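Saturday, quiet lab. Running sequence design on the structure tokens for the scaffold JK sent over.
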């Protein structure tokens, strides 16, 4: 999620404009990467979406998963769960320590029962990108990385509206992308290529590299509170991209080739704007909405109005829509993040890691999704 910060890229960015990318108008919009790392999950779990009890033998791909990797991701992150039953299973996992694949599978099957969440949805993916940046603007690096404005009330995340305080003390909704980008600049933390900044805002966070070798994390600070709107479908509908070529790589390439008024016009179709802060790069994975680093390939962003942070799922993502994608994503994952475009009970955004390779993979993930919740056997779902 604003990845919570992490959202994206350079080559690494070839990726996730998928966020908006979709070959079919009815598809679920991709992730508007994220929301800033928060204090953690709410004290109570959200209402449980309808699900159908099943056995592990009925879960496609269960036997083939790397259960040791799934167990380790759960063991390391399970402390965020507020559900008492999950907390008890967490204590058991941490007491067991790292397990090999057979014992990890046995642990899951002894402590959980699967339930198929009713319906099908969309699986997308995101990553933490690395981009070039400059301390001063030039013709190529002309887009300012803006800090959270001093006149902003709220942060436009987690259901909080972003408002602008007027000189007379009254407030109004914070302006959209176009108004922000065309208003006088108060401060710039760094300067980026416009298309790179656009993708960074989608991903929610990333790493900036400067010519002198300095590396800084761009950390999600706030949004203007506007609803995320993908640009892939509009670009396809305007004939700017082929219907079967709306990947993040294709979108970013067009924006770079048309840098200036044409690209600005397209990017401004998305009114959502993300502000950042800079911090030293520690080389660690980004922190998600649950307030802990995200394990690559084993963390998902979810609709936290329907799914509690810390819940465990087995995802079954098949039938990719984009060329060059892996045929399926079937694995145990933990809900650790949130995103502005992640809505619905069967909707997930899979975190794939740092850098260009993760970005290239993330930009091609748009799969039909089925989700199997792993429910603790030790007590009722709370």
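Result came back. Writing it out in full:
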């Amino acid at each position: 999620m604003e990845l919570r910060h992490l959202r994206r890229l350079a080559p690494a960015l070839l990726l996730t404009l998928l966020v908006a990318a979709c070959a079919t108008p009815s598809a679920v919009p991709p992730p508007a990467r994220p929301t800033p790392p928060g204090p953690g999950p709410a004290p109570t779990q959200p209402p449980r979406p309808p699900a159908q009890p099943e056995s592990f033998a009925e879960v496609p791909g269960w036997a083939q998963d790397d259960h040791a990797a799934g167990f380790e991701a759960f063991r390391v992150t399970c402390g965020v769960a507020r559900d008492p039953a999950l907390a008890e299973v967490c204590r058991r996992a941490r007491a067991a320590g790292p397990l090999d694949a057979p014992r990890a599978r046995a642990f899951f099957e002894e402590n959980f029962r699967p339930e198929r969440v009713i319906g099908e949805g969309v699986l997308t993916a995101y990553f933490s990108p690395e981009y070039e940046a400059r301390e001063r603007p030039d013709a190529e690096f002309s887009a300012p990385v803006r800090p959270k404005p001093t006149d902003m009330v709220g942060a436009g995340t987690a259901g909080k509206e972003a408002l602008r305080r007027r000189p007379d003390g009254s407030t109004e909704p914070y302006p959209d992308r176009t108004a922000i980008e065309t208003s006088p600049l108060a401060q710039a933390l760094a300067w980026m290529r416009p298309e790179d900044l656009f993708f960074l805002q989608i991903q929610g966070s990333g790493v900036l590299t400067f010519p002198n070798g300095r590396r800084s994390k761009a950390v999600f600070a706030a949004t203007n509170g506007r609803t995320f709107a993908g640009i892939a479908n509009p670009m396809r509908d305007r004939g700017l991209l082929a219907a079967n070529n709306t990947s993040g790589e294709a979108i970013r390439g067009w924006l770079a080739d048309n840098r200036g008024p044409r690209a600005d016009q397209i990017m401004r179709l998305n009114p959502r704007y993300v502000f950042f802060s800079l911090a030293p790069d520690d080389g660690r994975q980004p922190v998600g909405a649950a307030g802990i680093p995200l394990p690559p390939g084993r963390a998902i962003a979810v609709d936290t109005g329907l799914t509690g942070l810390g819940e465990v799922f087995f995802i079954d993502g098949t039938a990719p829509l984009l060329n060059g994608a892996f045929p399926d994503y079937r694995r145990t994952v933990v809900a650790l993040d949130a995103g502005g475009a992640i809505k619905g009970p069967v909707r997930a955004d899979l975190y794939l890691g740092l850098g260009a390779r993760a970005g290239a993979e993330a930009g091609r993930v748009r799969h039909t999704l089925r989700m199997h919740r792993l429910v603790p056997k030790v007590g009722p779902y709370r």
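Notes for JK: Confidence is low (pLDDT under 50) at residues 1-43. The first helix runs from residue 67 to 77. Ask whether to fix the surface positions before the next round.
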